[in-house]
């Protein structure tokens, strides 16, 4: 059914900056050493199964445009054909990882039990293909936002039967992820939020969401899953207001329910923009709290007010993101997942490969620029200079003194501190030397 879907395409190779081959890497050389580590091991690229294989080219105003061979039916034969195409794509790209939702890879069953069984069957297929190809699983997750049952949320749903259905769905997806050696498991709220407070008990829903995530962590330890549990912030779409609005909101939620030592964040560039932040802001917030886990690399169209999930093409933006990541010590068990899709007019298999080639090259350029900035040390020196006053013993002592003692000392000094330049434009010019 799909054996020849990518017919005529060769595995993508690194050919350097002089190549004119649109299906060759110009900057991504997996074995290049950056800050003492292979580039592949820094970036840990993953292909998103949903956008690459399950997305049919539809949008809110029109139906499918791609007409892939495996889209013709919702049965296990077509799911297997989709898996054939997926792992052929992975072979051509040579990226080390992939990611999936349960609903991306298995057909919906006539019952919950049949859906779980279908996932177990496709897990058998994946296990064999992963053994054959060496492709690994960065993370698995469960789709609890598309089907009608999830319209009022999953763990936050007012119907306890939906909560139980969600628990079963997540258990099955975690079991599949664990069996396939996944290095993380992600929970994205989807519809964990509200449309109107007129019919919402916000406090109860947050408590139920906290209880659900606690049970996920408990089950992780029960089955011996060694991966990291991740939650993914997003401010809107599809709910008017989602409880996992941004990194800071998620961190506060995790601390409230005592999960800050068990759960980290999977951060997406497009979601950061929807929340009114830059990507590096979200990364820095998570890194400051020791909760930076993994990233979804994409971009939004800045002329649109929604999540367009386009492949990255802005090297300066990507460089600043990887600068924060490198300063934080890297992604650990996380990676760079391309939560991005080709445009609905990009119909050919070649477009699917080329989009990833371009995204991987942009990330490679960004990583190398970030590493060069760190090695140069200019930003670090400027940062140390700006906060140098806090190194003085009397300044450090203030942090443990009562307010009245600090005030008395300031009155005794009688000085009026004068501000110093933040040198923002100079620092921005400095960054531009590297990108």
UniProtKB/TrEMBL annotation:
Keywords: Carbohydrate metabolism, Cytoplasm, Isomerase, Magnesium, Metal-binding, Xylose metabolism
Cofactor: Mg(2+)
Compartment annotation: Cytoplasm
EC nos: 5.3.1.5
Keyword Acyltransferase: no
Annotated GO MF terms: magnesium ion binding; xylose isomerase activity
Binding-site positions, Mg(2+) 1: 232, 268, 296, 339
Gene Ontology CC terms, in alphabetical order: cytoplasm
UniProt remark on cofactor binding: Binds 2 magnesium ions per subunit.
Record has Isomerase as a keyword: yes
PANTHER family recorded: PTHR48408, XYLOSE ISOMERASE
HAMAP family per the UniProt record, alphabetical: Xylose_isom_A
Assembly notes: Homotetramer.
Protein name in UniProt: Xylose isomerase
Species of origin: Mangrovicoccus algicola
Gene name linked to the record: xylA
